[in-house]
Amino acid sequence: MRRSSPWVIAVVLILGAGYFSECSWKKIRPCIPEIGRKELEPTIGQGVLLGILGGFRTVVADLTWIRSYVMWERRDRAGCEALMRAACALDPHSRYFWENTGYSIGYDLAHWEIIRRGGYKNVPQETQERLFRSYARRGLDVLDDGLNYSKSKLPLLVCAGQLAEIKLKDSALASRYYHEAAVLPYAPWYAARIAAHLDWDLGKREEAYQWYRGYWLSRMKGVDDGYPDDLVQIREMEKQLKLTPQARLPKQAWEK
Amino acid sequence: MKASLQRTIWICRVTFLEAVRQRFFAFLLILGAAMVLSSVSFRVLDFGHGELKFIADFGFGGMFLFGSVLAVVMTAQLFFSEMDNRTALTLLAKPLSRTEFLLGKFFGTWAVLGVFVLILSILLGLVMWGREQELLAAAEQSGKIPAQFSAGGLLSFALLQWFRLGVVITIVLAVCAAARTFLFAVVMGAMAVVAGQLQWIAQDAVLKPTQHGLYSTFLWVTSRLIPNLQQFNIGDALVLESASVPSGAVAMAVGSGGFYMVAFLVLAALIFRRREI
To answer: What does the domain layout of chain B look like in residue ranges?
Structure first.
């Protein structure tokens, strides 16, 4: 008993240190970019261990991104996607990686797949559409992940809106992304206009008009030249909705 | 007690002098310094990060990589040189206990790594400060908000790295106390560093509820026996977003490192006491 007691003390000390380390980790975890087991999977076999271990994370992410360009030039779908996702996982706060990975998967990969299957003439139109939609969905999944991690959400929302509208052909989803983008600080002017037009085309005409009008009054009227082109769009909506002059937006002093 | 402390300090001093005279130490120090100083030139390879973040990452990477290599190889080398040259036999024949010998080796090596971390941190601070001044001037002209770095945060990060390397040294010493060859100690030490850096995967899994009793027991034991070295890697947050680090987080990590060092030193001393020299 006496001979084994120092060993018991050593084990207890190590377990105690482990417990203390767990408390410390709970406090520190939010400071470390959120790379988890799920995000680690695509990085396995990509030679990015050094980045996962610590230090060099940004540098390894950059080098991984450069390697993904080589795959992109070779039109290697699996390699390109794996390396791009690895770069995102290594540096999840970087907007650049998420945005370009989403773009590449959503726009390019479907074309490569069609070419691999024999080209645009040989692949039926229906199959092409299905491929475009399926890759657009995957691109949007990447962008959605990016929205959870990246500090700069605006470009990702605009990119997701474009992808949902152009490739996925889901106007409701695209409208949701543009609406989210439009209300953020420094939102581009076109986000609100596209959001309103998508809702309008979806049949939600009254809602679209009210939202666009409110947006113009709160975010556009007092800025720069008052965004006259958007006011023209609003007037067109009022005309089509056959609103009474009282229900319309009051005429602006500078309006033609 | 006083005599014991004096003997430990004496071993520590000898170890420190022996270590700083090694070409291996000088080589890695120069390599690390060159990496930090050249980081500004490499920023053209960067995609969409803040410049200071890229430079800081280069410095953190240098400290992590070369610091870990130094901690593993130098500790094993200093330990086995005493064994192979039979100087350990002579030393331990005098009124010097094995625990004092081990403690002296630990503090001597830790002090050398302290010098390594301090020099790289000062160089990194200077490079970042220089670039920050340029960015400030450019931001004034363009009217943008410039990125800034926290010198206090860098100091805290250096302290964390020093403690991380201290934990690595104690693990390697525990391995050396049991190992018969230098190569075995180095390989096991390197594997311990990799395991420690990836331990947080088990730690994260432990914190999530799971229904598999055996699995969660395995994770619980693993996450306590292997130290979580990733908790010392909060350089980005400390240096570039110091406000985002919760108060007391650095102290907790330092405390955790200290606790592990004591635990592994006790283990190393116990193993070394049973070793035939």
So the answer is: 2-273
**For residue B124, how far is the Cα from the chain centroid?**
17
Would the pLDDT of B42 be above 90? Answer: no
**The two structure tokens encoding residue B4:** 């014991």
Q: How far apart are CA A168 and CA A182, in angstroms?
A: 21
Partner-chain contact B230 A54, CB within 8 Å: yes
Considering only CB atoms, A13 lies closest to which of B238, B255, B263, namely B263
Q: For all residues of chain B together, what is the average pLDDT?
A: 88
Q: Residue A236: inside a domain, yes or no?
A: yes
Average pLDDT over residues A210-227: 85
Distance between CA A250 and CA B163 in Å, rounded? 68
Which chain B residue is nearest to residue A34, measuring alpha carbons?
B204
Task: Please tell me which of the candidates B63, B201, B234 has its beta carbon nearest to residue A28.
Answer: B234
CB-CB under 8 Å, A14 with B45 = no
Q: Are B83 and B182 in contact (CB under 8 A)?
A: no
Residue A115 reports pLDDT greater than 80: yes
Chain A residues touching B200 at Cβ < 8 A: 25, 29
Q: Model confidence over B86-108: pLDDT tens digits? A: 888 888 888 889 999 999 999 99
Residue A68 has pLDDT above 60, yes or no: yes
Q: Are A100 and A158 in contact (CB under 8 A)?
A: no
Picking from A15, A21, A97, the nearest residue to B228 by CB comes out as A21
Distance from CA of A251 to the nearest CA of B (A): 36
Per CB-CB distance under 8 Å, the chain A contacts of B51 are none
CB of A214 within 8 Å of any CB in chain B?
no
Shortest Cα–Cα distance, B224 to chain A (Å): 4
Question: How far is Cα A116 from Cα A114, in angstroms, rounded to an integer?
Answer: 5
Residues in chain A: 256
In a domain, A233, yes or no: yes
Q: A21–B234: do the CB atoms touch at under 8 Å?
A: no
Q: Is A95 a domain residue?
A: no
Q: Which of A220, A222, A223, A246 is nearest to A233 (CA)?
A: A220
Chain B residues in contact with A62 (beta carbon < 8 A):
45-47, 49, 54
For chain B, how many residues are written? 277
Number of domains in chain A: 1
DSSP label at residue A23? H
> Is A151 within a domain?
no
Find chain B residues with C-beta within 8 A of A36's C-beta.
Answer: 201, 204
**Which pLDDT tens digit goes with each residue over B69-83?**
999 999 999 999 988
What's the pLDDT score for residue A186?
87
pTM value is 0.82
Q: Which residue do the tokens 């980005």 mark?
A: B236
Per-residue pLDDT tens digits for A141-178: 999 999 988 888 999 999 999 999 999 999 999 999 99
Nearest CB among A18, A59, A96 relative to B224 is that of: A18
Instruction: Give the domain range for residue A224.
Output: 196-256
